[in-house]
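so my prof wants the structure for this chain in the tokens format not the other one, which i didnt know existed until like an hour ago. anyway here's the sequence
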Amino acid sequence: MRAARLLICYVAGVFVGGALLAPWLFHLAHWAAGELPALQGLAGQPFHRYVNRCLLLVAVAGLWPLLRALNLADRRALGLASPLAACRPLALGLALGFGSLLLAAVLMALAG
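here's what i got, hopefully its the right format
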């Protein structure tokens, strides 16, 4: 139940934060375009694009605190193994694959 409450608060925070941040960035971009002509392309974008980017920005910024609150901040909690543990099977698979490919190429070259 705690996880569901945290997710609901996260989603609500993303929407509220994005909605509060978008008008400020929209006006900041228009002001900056007046000062720096190179930013005219940025100021020419429609408002919905600013809302979209602000929602993404707030969602990514809030992801780390959400994962920490859900006790998912480390690799083991997410179910990801250490990359070093996967090196041996990966090397074996690559060697087996390239070896069989080399064998097939040699047989095809000998067959003509």
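also thought this was worth mentioning. Residues 2-80 form one domain.
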